Amino acid sequence: MSFQTGSGPRTETYYGVPLWELINNPKAGGGLKPGNSGVNSKNSFLRQYVLVDATDCYGAVVAIGEIQPNFEGKTVLVAFAKKGSDGKVVPLTDEGFARLVVPGDKAGGR
Questions:
Q1: What's the CA gap between 14 and 35, in Å, rounded?
Q2: Domain residue ranges in the chain
């Protein structure tokens, strides 16, 4: 993944679990729940989102439509490790315990 930072472009290889799989894992919260359908219940999940609060006081929002396989189907990764400069997989201890990796974002802030 390549993205822009305050100190210039950066390229990293991250390892983790897709956000879609995480929120739909029965052991990790029981899966996506039907949202407030309002007047029109068709595709009501498109009005849902995931709010991420990070330990470094950052936050991000990912719309369910971005990650739902039948819509945009973007593979947003909840990364817990990356490839180190020596080629070995190392935990993200310098970036918190996890990082949200969003393909297509120009900057690495989400």
A1: 31
A2: 2-32+44-101
For 22, the enclosing helix (H) or strand (E) is helix 19-23
Q: Which residues of 24-52 are buried (b: 16+ CB within 10 A; e: fewer)?
A: eeeeeeeeeeeeeeeeeeeeebeebbbeb
- What average pLDDT does the segment 99-106 reach? 86
pTM: predicted TM-score of the whole model, two decimal places: 0.80
Residue 105 has pLDDT above 90, yes or no: no
Q: Would you state the structure tokens that stand for residue 7, as one six-digit string?
A: 């100190």
What is the rounded CA–CA span in Å between residue 53 and residue 60? 7
Phi then psi for residue 63, to 5 deg, are -70, 140
Coil, helix or strand for 70? coil
Coil, helix or strand at residue 77 = strand
Phi-psi region of 64 (alpha: psi -120 to 50; beta: other; left: phi over 0): alpha
